[in-house]
Amino acid sequence: MAKVSVLGAGAWGVALGILLAENGNDVTMWTLLENEAKMLNEDRENKISLPGVKLHDTMKVTTDLEEAVKDKDVIVLATASRFIRSTSAKIKDYVKKGQIIVNVAKGIEESTLMTMTDIISEEIPDCDAVVLSGPSHAEEVGRGLPTTCVVGATTVKTAKFVQDIFMNNRFRVYTSPDILGIELGGALKNVIALAAGMADGIGCGDNTKAALITRGMREITRLGLAMGGKSETFSGLTGMGDLIVTCASVHSRNRRAGILIGEGKTMDEAMTAVNQVVEGVYSAKAAILLAEKYNVSMPIVAEVNKVLFENKSVRESLEDLMVRDKTTEITVDNWK
What we know:
By secondary structure, this protein is of the alpha/beta class. The protein has 2 domains: 3-177, NAD(P)-binding Rossmann-like Domain (Rossmann fold), CATH 3.40.50; 180-322, Orthogonal Bundle (N-(1-d-carboxylethyl)-l-norvaline Dehydrogenase, domain 2), CATH 1.10.1040.10. The chain has 16 helices and 8 strands. It has an 8-stranded mixed sheet with strand order 3-2-1-4-5-6-7-8, sandwiched between helices. α1 (11-22) links the parallel β1 (3-7) and β2. α14 (279-293) crosses α15 (299-309). It is globular, with a radius of gyration of 20 Å. It starts with a strand and ends in a 14-residue tail after the last helix.
């Protein structure tokens, strides 16, 4: 049994907290919001973010950050990506040297182009930053539906330790050394999911969805390889797997926001209607900046940015993608 703190009591934090508690770990959940802590303690569920999913009887809930973090074996950072830096800065005085911190947020910081584990390591230099990611909607993990994820860590020892505390017969966890690739796949798929939702919103069909998924995966892989990620990662759970589920699922906030934009709402109106963090909006600018930095072609990502931030219509962006210069899907040296 491990002593685990889950920071962030939204849908994903609650679902993982329940999973960890069911696995026999001593789990403390932290939320910044007094009303959210009151709801979790009194009703034993987050009725807003994850209704109908009850906390495990052994789980504790607190708004005291020091109480939540101090003397824990593992800290799970389950806040939205834009709060990873500020939360890391707040906890650094309470964590021990070598503290295992598991990031489960998906995003890239726009101002620095850093991944979440890079941010955590910068704010808490002596910690052991890990990532857990994969095709894993909180709504399904909370209900105990079969799910698979990948944990990325700098050492086999840490990866296996984190694998052990999360894994059970409904939540299978693989290990990987490719932290960068895992994080890029998790962040960039949200941008492609926005595009997939936009296509749904204007009435496109399965052919369009399949094209956006496969060509979007190509863009993610190109950038990921240029940055040092491993090709196996992008064809695996945290690459193609996560992209498929986010582009197709009814639970996907990014797809839902994209649908609303395709139907004519502005970015701000769509985000308000979804009423949850739409990570792809925050990752879109970072993604195109990374593409420019590494000289990688990402036309779908570029068009998503134009729709989000330049008021370009979804139909015009789709048309421009379709009429780009002719090219080949596979290049070989000896093709005659």
